[in-house]
């Protein structure tokens, strides 16, 4: 699973002339689902999105607060093109999960994100539609996230599970993200 995460002052999605969703200050998340993604990828991405410290605290100190800390909104948009690889100059999307499987997977991701962050704080676009995304990037701050590759080695699986359960460490280095 891949995500492009932007800190925004506002973001909106339209389909044709209809505005589907909009948020104020928060995160706009473009999410690409790969054909190999599992529940572990959902867990990883939700944990990272909710704990990514890219906001300021009440005194204005940057890189100290997460979207969860601030209670801000998230706009999620499914974007299969994030799973693109180039063959010469032509994009190839064979790594993306097929739409018939990706839509329920994406809906499950959104449902779990809503449970973890609050349904009133999570908005989304329209799966499979040709959308126009209007983003007012704040900073600009743009972060790329990718879930760790899956493994069949039991030791690696156990280590990945421990990492997923670990809370981010507090740091005194304001330039370092969790």
From TrEMBL:
Molecular function GO labels: D-tyrosyl-tRNA(Tyr) deacylase activity; Gly-tRNA(Ala) deacylase activity; tRNA binding
Please list where the region (Disordered) is annotated: 141-178
Instruction: Provide the protein's localization.
Output: Cytoplasm
Key words, A-Z: Cytoplasm, Hydrolase, RNA-binding, tRNA-binding
The keyword Ligase is assigned to this record: no
Under the heading InterPro entries, the entry gives:
Daa-tRNA_deacyls_DTD, DTD-like_sf
Task: Please give the catalytic activity noted in the UniProt record.
Answer: a D-aminoacyl-tRNA + H2O = a tRNA + a D-alpha-amino acid + H(+); glycyl-tRNA(Ala) + H2O = tRNA(Ala) + glycine + H(+)
Keyword Transport attached: no
Q: What class of enzyme is it?
A: hydrolase
Q: Which GO terms describe its cellular component?
A: cytoplasm
PANTHER family referenced in this protein's UniProt entry, alphabetically:
D-AMINOACYL-TRNA DEACYLASE 1 (PTHR10472:SF5), D-TYROSYL-TRNA TYR DEACYLASE (PTHR10472)
Q: What is this protein called?
A: D-aminoacyl-tRNA deacylase
Which source organism? Eptatretus burgeri
